Amino acid sequence: MYEQVSHSLLNEILNELNPEIKKRDLRYFYTRLGANFYAIYSLFYQLYGHRNDFKAQAVRLVETLARQYIRRPDSLKKIDIDREKDYNWFLSQEWVGMALYSDGFAGNLKGLTSKVAYFQELGVNVLHIMPILKSPEGASDGGYAVSNFREINPRAGTLDDLESLSFTLRSREILLVLDVVLNHSSNEHEWAKKARAGDQQYQDYYYIFDDRKIPDLYEETMPEIFPETAPGNFTWDEAMGKWVMTVFNHYQWDLNYSNPAVFIEMLDIILFWANQGADVVRLDAVAFLWKKIGTNCQNQREAHLVLQLMKDCCQVTAPGVLFIAEAIVAPVEVIKYFGEDAVIAKECEVAYNATYMALLWDAVATKNAKLLNQGIQSLPVKLDRATWLNYLRGHDDIGLGFDDMDILQAGYDPREHRRFIIEYFTGAYGDSPAKGMKFGSNHKTGDARISGSLASLVGLEAALLRGDPDEIDMAVNLILLLHSMILSLGGIPLLYYGDEIGTTNNYGYREDESKASDNRWLHRPVMDWNKAALRNQHGTVEQRIFDGLKKMIAVRKGIPAFADYNNRELLHVENPHLFIFLRTHPKQPAHSILVAGNFDTSPQMLDMNTLGNRVYLQYHTMKDFYSGESPTIRDGKLELQAYQFLWLSIQ
Length: 651
Ligand code: GLC
Description:
Elements: H1 4-16, H2 19-22, H3 27-48, H4 54-71, H5 74-85, E1 97-100, H6 102-106, H7 109-114, H8 116-122, E2 126-129, E3 133-134, E4 148-152, H9 159-171, E5 175-180, E6 184-186, H10 190-196, H11 200-203, E7 208-209, H12 213-221, E8 234-237, E9 242-245, E10 252-254, H13 260-275, E11 280-283, H14 301-317, E12 322-325, H15 331-334, E13 350-352, H16 354-366, H17 370-378, E14 387-391, H18 404-409, H19 414-425, E15 437-439, E16 449-451, H20 454-457, H21 460-466, H22 469-488, E17 492-496, H23 529-533, H24 541-557, E18 568-570, E19 578-584, E20 592-598, E21 604-607, H25 613-616, E22 623-624, E23 633-634, E24 637-640, E25 645-650
Parallel strand pairs: 1-2, 1-17, 2-5, 5-11, 11-12, 12-13, 13-14, 14-17
Antiparallel strand pairs: 3-4, 6-10, 7-9, 8-9, 15-16, 18-19, 19-20, 20-25, 21-24, 22-25, 23-24
Helix pairs in contact: 1-4, 3-4, 3-14, 4-13, 4-14, 13-14, 16-17, 22-24
The protein binds alpha-D-glucopyranose (GLC).
């Protein structure tokens, strides 16, 4: 769009650019800047237009984009152009991810490079390596307290190690996902140190107050994230003699995005990692980016403006790079991280589907899909060119973030139901085989979340301890059922390291003082490669899970209807234990896949009559893509065994 004010500002900025930049041939850069500048200007103006130094900051912003463009390696510039042409590339069903800690998985980045064949064996081609940036020894929130945003943690390796890993991954067509922790820095970051020493420029990077007056106002409406270990949202800094906002742990200082210098620094850091070869950047804790007294300081409109501006800027310098929004918030809020009032994603192209994750765990505990059906039905439709990350477990806890209205609709009392789920997964309910732990209990609100590995939460740990082959079978089947659900819903499935071989809880964290108070370490394993080797031994738990997933991944990749074009239709069925949906590729409407999952521990029947003509008329010729077999159908009723799933072809 041509717009006078922004255009004349752009001309002025281009005139004032550093001569070093001006003399370069930046053809693609200027084309993209011209195309995006109206949006960049409008957003930058909305956020910082009231400041006297607005224009100077705008010049700095454009210079930052240009400098990083100049540094961007040619090989990555070529990928940018390819992805611009094939702009739906990331919606393909061919992407399958895994998240891991490099130290837990393979010691460090070098070790990880030597294990790349493992991902290919399984079929994983998107690799999220959790924080590898410099962070303090001891407690660092699993690396999410960063003390230098441009240096690799020596424990993980060096920039050269990352470069060679990124090269190896690219040569095998595996995408690299890196974290940028936008919301806060460690209190040992240079900026925090300068702020502590009294430097006003850096005190303005954070939310710092002389007394409790303003902190108390914030506290009136701000919830607590880690109520047990880090109550409150402010920390007294003795050296500075001031209060600092610390929403997460006391050593994580919240960055202040109302200061454009912070915005430009962090954008520069995103582009820095994009230039190191990150195909995708995971933007941590984005819901928290903007704080406003009188609100819960989450999901604020300005947080969205910040993210949109980051996306538009990235579009100029590194347009091939995707953003993942890590916003573990209510369904109506999470959807906004793709961008509001838009047709295609204009904020983050990818977002964690925490709603689906929590709903699947609900189905495990209740052995039915009542809330799962209700919750997915209420999940707002997302934009085009936007996709979910569908996951079961990750390095964080499980929050029961479903909507109270949905719980009521499913026929439960919200408070009671949440309590039941917590009790189920902590093994306190009836004969529940789950071995999770309560995380983040808040005595004021009664809320709690859950820690524990996938295998331990589904009962595999208990079954192995008892040595009961039937229970082991059930747990293995449940692990496969759950994965079949994240591999087929629509979006990029994200596996979690160790789950592919049934890794159970890691109780060792209790011996480490810097971890003992945070039971999320229960499910942050050190990979046991002897156990992984058992995947090659027929009949072991490891082999059954690994091979099951390997096959599922290979089958998914061959089914175009599993690509994510908002092409999913939830089918209502009478039997509450079943979760059923239809996937149809927009370009191949004649070929659909009927996905069916039974969350009960006994066989269940699906009445084909209730599925509508299109499915009903086909049921004689249906075939399960996963097993290659025709399903058992009697009197128009399809039988699903306990924890069975089917991916049925409909021609
Ligand atoms: C994100 C991370 C989590 C961390 C928090 C604060 O939610 O996933 O592990 O504790 O941000 O950085």
